[in-house]
């Protein structure tokens, strides 16, 4: 048994660099960028009209000219053209290249066009309505940093600089393993002493949100079978997540099997609730880490969110985001266990406020439906007070 | 031209009920539940041991008994058994059914076992370490409400009650359409007057995060071709998102083509920046809505996040989440335009604090990389002050 803080640190210490891989732009969403992205040309790459109207040379205005002969028309996608005469104008559309001997765009709303001539009805400001070549970014600038999370905004930038394929961090190969003879499949009618599998589905869907498609298996409470299957699973995965099989029961063979398979126990048992019988280890030979979570649904769910997700973030080169929230009600944590308490989050006038979820212990799966995350409270003699800041681990998308 | 507030309301007014569809549990993640979910049995369905140890009848303790003959062993997944003699005990594992004539579990840590007898080394409390039949939920209880977002926690509950397939809200069919002769593909080297497509990739990835796989097309700035293609697209989609082609340029045929296709214009032009030339309409016959966004990357991105995402939420039966954030710096909004300002969000001691992103107008795609969302500021004569609460629209996953 070790403290929560030590257990958490030991898990993070075994994060892994899984290397990089090339994916297509369409597959890059949500992945972690593994290369710096440089502007391959200026942003914008030319003096770009930002309004529809006419392009003129401001010198003519300064000479008192207010009516301009229209030389032609420039649409977006047309090669650049010069004004033949800088006392004339050219009609120009948003996105088109402004002639290099023009310097000002006047939008249609500020001119009157009659018989091939444009007359100003409002005086322009020199240089207006032109998005200047290189004014956002210069060619060679760093536009996206390595280790960025690729969201829709980053996809746009990657497209603009021509990255049809992108180097991203490789995701770990993960297996999820359920154990326990009492478990039946979702589409079965359980006998009175049986229950349906749920943890493995929870883990599968949680991992799928991280872009990971885990392999799934179920082990009976039978030692030889566990050993054979786990041996192979350890070889082909970077992380194995087990649910159940780690308490002190006669049929909980996992810790013993792990030892026989050369998986070094890092710890077994953490001073926390829920999730106390958590077993964590690493197979030195393969560097595969094993998260063996207690089988109670809330225990597995809490440990996945608190330990595994930060292990994953570190393994992908991401910083760990530490978020504090404000207690809406007092909470008492006595004894020697760090408490992971289920809370509901409210956005209250720019404040993150949490209230405790009514629950019935670590077997109470349904309480997780009302839960937005866990607050992590160390035991202390005085109660945590209303308004106090406490660390928060989200368990669903909240913002 | 209409106000931002009116435009926003008109978009919401045309949200659509797209009906429901059945998906497998594995495909249900992130979807919106379209049925109430009822517990098909009690949670837990039997008196369930929550520790490994022995099950006893507390009467024996009350009679002063401290040593118990072990009758046998009960593992999880074994049918229920009775104590043959309530003065005896039975070894029991976590998850197993507690005999109906036992009422207390004593964990291994609190007993000594010797030659078929278990002796207490700590007095138990009657009823301890049993997760009582139906104590979390009774059969027939509502465990998940219609219109819930299905996250990993909900997946676990759906699995537990045997929902191998789940009724969810149908997602809209969406087409995304780019226009503009200046655009080339991501893997092409643009000529000096050309730029690569980026908006369509941004929209594609943003929609993919909502579980929508949009169809993609590109229209040249040529009227007949636009009309043919759009006509078909309107028939087979619930929403069409266009980028570019709605300003006042000579080659911006979209509004005219829309009219010819029987798409009723709801509005064209909103008193907002960026995204002012936004065109919105509906084809009455098909009920397909058309979001025609201005082509500047920031305009398209802002309007997608501000208008389309809430249209989508309402169409899926979700409530609109209104979040206010705290200004870290003053902001001035004069004139008659509602400003959508790019901001970076910080989690500061339980407070959501935003600072303005340095940017160079609505063409400045790269500024979106530093942007976590937009704040929506109505024009007013006094500046918005430090510490003031303002509405926030996130543009990436933040919590």
What is the terminal separation of chain A in angstroms?
36 Å
Low-confidence stretches of chain A: none
Count of the domains of chain A: 4
Name of the CATH class of the largest domain in chain A: Alpha Beta
CATH-level-2 architecture of the largest domain in chain A: 3-Layer(aba) Sandwich
Q: CATH superfamily assignment of the largest domain in chain A?
A: MoaB/Mog-like domain
| Overall average residue pLDDT of chain A | 95
Helix/strand structural class of chain A:
alpha/beta
Q: Give the largest chain-chain interface (CB within 8 Å).
A: A-B, 120 and 120 residues
Helix content of chain A: 10-25%
* Secondary structure tally, helices of chain A: 7
Q: Supply Rg of chain A.
A: 31 Å
Strand order of the largest sheet of chain A: 8-5-7-6-10-9
Question: Which geometry of chain A do the CA atoms define?
Answer: elongated
Oligomer: homodimer
Number of strands of chain A: 27
Strand content of chain A: 25-35%
Largest sheet of chain A: 6 strands, mixed
The CATH topology of the largest domain in chain A corresponds to Molybdenum Cofactor Biosythetic Enzyme, Chain A
Pfam family, one (chains A, B): MoeA_C
Catalytic activity (chains A, B): adenylyl-molybdopterin + molybdate = Mo-molybdopterin + AMP + H(+)
Enzyme class (chains A, B): transferase
Function (chains A, B): Catalyzes the insertion of molybdate into adenylated molybdopterin with the concomitant release of AMP.
């Amino acid at each position: 048994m070790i403290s929560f803080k030590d257990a958490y640190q030991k898990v993070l210490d075994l994060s892994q660099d899984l290397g990089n891989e090339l994916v297509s732009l369409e597959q890059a969403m949500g992945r972690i960028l593994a290369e710096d992205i440089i502007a391959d040309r200026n942003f914008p790459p030319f003096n770009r009209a930002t309004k529809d109207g006419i392009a003129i040379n401001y010198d003519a205005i300064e000479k008192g000219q207010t009516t301009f002969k229209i030389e032609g028309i420039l649409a977006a996608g047309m090669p650049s053209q010069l004004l033949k005469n800088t006392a004339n104008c050219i009609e120009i559309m948003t996105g088109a290249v402004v002639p290099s001997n023009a310097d000002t765009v006047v939008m249609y709303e500020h001119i009157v066009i009659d018989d091939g001539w444009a007359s100003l009805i409002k005086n322009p400001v020199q240089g207006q309505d032109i998005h200047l070549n290189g004014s956002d970014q210069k060619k060679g600038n760093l536009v996206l940093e390595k280790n960025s999370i690729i969201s829709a905004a980053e996809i746009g930038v990657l497209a603009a600089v021509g990255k049809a394929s992108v180097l991203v961090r490789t995701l770990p190969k993960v297996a999820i393993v359920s154990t326990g003879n009492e478990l039946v499949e979702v589409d079965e009618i359980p006998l009175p002493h049986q229950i349906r599998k749920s943890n493995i589905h929870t883990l599968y869907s949680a991992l799928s949100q991280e872009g990971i498609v885990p392999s799934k298996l179920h082990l009976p409470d039978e030692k030889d079978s566990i050993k054979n299957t786990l041996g192979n699973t350890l070889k082909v995965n970077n992380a194995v997540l087990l649910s159940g099989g780690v308490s002190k029961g006669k049929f909980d063979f996992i810790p013993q099997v792990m030892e026989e398979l050369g998986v070094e126990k890092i710890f077994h048992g953490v001073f926390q609730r829920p999730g106390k019988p958590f077993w964590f280890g690493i197979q030195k030979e393969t560097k595969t880490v094993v998260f063996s979570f207690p089988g109670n649904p809330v225990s597995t769910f809490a440990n996945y969110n608190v330990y595994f997700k930060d292990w994953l973030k570190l393994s992908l080169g991401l910083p760990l985001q530490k978020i504090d929230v404000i207690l809406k009600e007092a909470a008492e944590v006595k004894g020697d266990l760090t408490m992971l308490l289920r809370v509901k989050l409210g956005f209250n006038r720019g404040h993150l406020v949490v209230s405790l979820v009514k629950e019935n212990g670590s077997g109470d799966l349904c309480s997780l439906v009302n839960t937005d995350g866990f607050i992590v409270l160390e035991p202390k003699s005085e109660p945590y007070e209303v308004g106090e800041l406490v660390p928060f681990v989200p368990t669903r998308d909240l913002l």
